[in-house]
Amino acid sequence: MAATTTATTATSPIFFNSHRKISSQSKPISLISFSSSNFLQKRIKNLNFQRMSLLPTRLEFRKHSKVGAKKESLSSDEELQSLVPDGGASVVHQEEVFSWTSVILPFLYPALGGLLFGYDIGATSGATISLQSPELSGTTWFNLSSIQLGLVVSGSLYGALIGSVLVYPIADFLGRRRELIIAAMLYALGGLTTGFAPDLNVLILGRLLYGLGIGLAMHGAPLYIAETCPSQIRGTLISMKELMIVLGILLGYLAGSIEIDAIGGWRYMFGFSAPVALLMGLGMWSLPASPRWLLLRAVQGKASLQEYKEKAIAGLSRLRGRPAGDKVSEKQVEETLVSLKEAYADEASEGSFWEVFQGPSLKAFTIGGGLVLFQQITGQPSVLYYAGSILQTAGFAAASDAARVSVVIGLFKFLMTGVAVLKVDDLGRRPLLIGGVTGITASLLFLSAYYKILQGYPLVAVAALLLYVGCYQISFGPISWLMVSEIFPIRTRGRGISLAVLTNFGANALVTFAFSPLKEALGADNLFLLFAGIALVSLLFVIFIVPETKGLSLEEIESKILK
User: Fold this and answer.
1) Which branch of life, at top level (predicted)?
2) DSSP state of 97
3) Backbone phi, then psi, for 73, in 5-degree steps?
4) Is 224 exposed, middle or buried (0-12, 13-18, 19+ CB in 10 A)?
5) Facing residues of 67 across strands?
6) How far apart are CA 323 and CA 471, in angstroms?
7) Are 329 and 347 in contact (CB under 8 A)?
8) CA neighbor of 412 nearest in space, from 479, 462, 446, 482
9) Three-state SS for 262?
10) Which residues pair with 97 in a beta bridge?
11) pLDDT digits (tens, 9 = 90+) for 210-268
12) Virtual CA dihedral for 328, 331, 337, 343, nearest 10 degrees?
């Protein structure tokens, strides 16, 4: 029997002054005897305590609630309604029941898109060494110019940028599931084309195809996970997608370390991605479409409401490991449908291109786009660029081997991302962001001081490097993508995330291409000082702009934070 997890969340104190409110309502008093009124007062206290400790309350209500001499059982909704002030909406959520075995695959298959993105980052570092070696490349065109090498290294980045632009207008038409299936096909095609490339032009084409897959996967994966997972573990699962990216980087480094001495080893490094992409595609084919996306299309008038509502109920039942068409899934779909109809009540059936830059969507883009922008322009690629030389100056023997050094850093990144995954739904988003970005700022100041005045103390540089990597992986690394996946209103979620992904890859390209001229113009010490100043600005941005979304459903984020 599959293990099940239950959780009840409450986001506002509905029991505040509830005794006075009940006494002012004539209808409940006329139905409840003196003894049952005392009983309800005790129940209120117990419920308030249970709410604080996140214990289930609804089922226990059903066991004890009786009304008057008739002894008729009250449903939990009826009793709760009697405790809520007039005109107030129900703010206690029905407990979410799900099977862990049913949650794993709807997370794993989309997250493979992140793993393949990370794998490309790791494998490329070793593949470029193998590709340029006269003895190991296995080609006659190994003598690449700096521009040609740049196209090989950055080809997937260009592809990701193009993919982000292409998916912007068609994201809601494709849907999250089909988008990820197409991403898997592009991953596989790009990996095979690169692995079997007969010349440089085909190699660059393969890198572009692979990058298109990255652009689609980094848009569709957080959307699918956020829309299909239970809200109480949404932060953990989306952060685990970042963990999968780091795991992919580590696997890419390991593949490079293993194949670095093989003739034509770069072909294996790139080609190993194809089987994983095939697994991702087959896995996504086996999963249902996002229930929220189905309802969105129906409300937009793009499909039959009844047909897509039935598909949404069936899909949600599968995603939670419940019997087909169960009443709990049906109720949750009805509630989501009501929220969507309210969002579309007096507006056009589909968000326009410019709606992302208006009202609540603009606020969401400021938060999500700002985070992924600062994620890149605080210098993450530049700090890792210096990792090998910093470890070498500290006298670490492994630093003489670039591949092994990369594995060590990858392991540390993986470990620290695991810390964020375990704590994001416990501590919340803001504490991890504030603490992590504070550490990033301090580490960049230390690195600047090392290159300026502390070159005789290499351990300072090593400590600063590890502090930077660790703090990045508990803050900007996972939390930025988590916030992007959950902050946008349902009307503009697809386009908003497309724009955030485009911002991320655009900033990545900017930092990558600006690094060399900035390094020559400013020197390493002043470059890190500049990054420290940007990191300080990003810290202020987090403190004053970024909200806390822990424990809130996607609909609650829209109604309570963005309005």
Assistant:
1) Eukaryota
2) E
3) -75, 135
4) buried
5) 72
6) 43
7) no
8) 462
9) coil
10) 6
11) 999 999 998 899 889 988 888 778 878 877 888 898 899 889 888 888 887 888 889 99
12) -100
